[in-house]
Amino acid sequence: MIRVIGIDPGLRNLGWGVIDVSGSRIAHVANGICHSEGDDLAARLLSLHGQLTRVLATYRPGAAAVEQTFVNKDGAGTLKLGQARGIAMLVPAQFGLAVGEYAPNKVKKTVVGVGHADKGQVAHMVRMQMPGIEIAGPDAADALAIAICHAHHGGASTLAQAVARAQA
């Protein structure tokens, strides 16, 4: 079994989701949202770092994955999101984990079946794959989807190998 954390980076709300993967089975462990606190960017990033560090210390994942940042028309917003993404990559690295990176369309295609699904569709399919779970919000649902994507595409090698064999 391998424990995977998926992280959906955001400066205000950084979603996280932890799953256990054993063969082709996935099980929900926990999910939540880190809310940044502070008056300036440095304080907000430090807040996210501390909260995410506590999550990793609590759940001790063996693999991590982060959604890649897409560039939008707001250059300043994209840069701030990139800084939050840096925290999302730094904290797992501090725990000795390699960090998988996935484009939003790949995550959606893996979990929903189409690359342009909306947040509601992602949350619905996450619930379908892990019935009965309570999801802390859309950012946490996205983070669980990132963890599932990582499990399917290399983060949890036994599942990735089973998928590769099935596709061969």
From TrEMBL:
Enzyme class (EC, first level): hydrolase
Q: Which reaction does it catalyse?
A: Endonucleolytic cleavage at a junction such as a reciprocal single-stranded crossover between two homologous DNA duplexes (Holliday junction)
Gene3D superfamilies given in the database record: Ribonuclease H-like superfamily/Ribonuclease H
Which CDD domains does this UniProt record tie to the protein?
A: RuvC
Subcellular locations according to the entry = Cytoplasm
- Which cofactors are named for this entry? Mg(2+)
Annotated binding of Mg(2+) 2, by residue = 67
Q: Which GO terms describe its molecular function?
A: hydrolase activity
Predominant place of localization: cytoplasm
What keywords tag this UniProt record? Cytoplasm, DNA damage, DNA recombination, DNA repair, DNA-binding, Endonuclease, Hydrolase, Magnesium, Metal-binding, Nuclease
Residues reported in the UniProt entry to bind Mg(2+) 1:
8, 139
Q: Which residues form the active site?
A: 8, 67, 139
- PROSITE patterns annotated for this entry? RUVC
Q: Please share the entry's free-text remark on the cofactor.
A: Binds 2 Mg(2+) ion per subunit.
Q: What is its EC number?
A: 3.1.21.10
Report quaternary structure and partners: Homodimer which binds Holliday junction (HJ) DNA. The HJ becomes 2-fold symmetrical on binding to RuvC with unstacked arms; it has a different conformation from HJ DNA in complex with RuvA. In the full resolvosome a probable DNA-RuvA(4)-RuvB(12)-RuvC(2) complex forms which resolves the HJ.
The text of the family note is: Belongs to the RuvC family.
Give the protein's biological function. The RuvA-RuvB-RuvC complex processes Holliday junction (HJ) DNA during genetic recombination and DNA repair. Endonuclease that resolves HJ intermediates. Cleaves cruciform DNA by making single-stranded nicks across the HJ at symmetrical positions within the homologous arms, yielding a 5'-phosphate and a 3'-hydroxyl group; requires a central core of homology in the junction. The consensus cleavage sequence is 5'-(A/T)TT(C/G)-3'. Cleavage occurs on the 3'-side of the TT dinucleotide at the point of strand exchange.
- Name of protein: Crossover junction endodeoxyribonuclease RuvC
| Native species | Sulfitobacter dubius
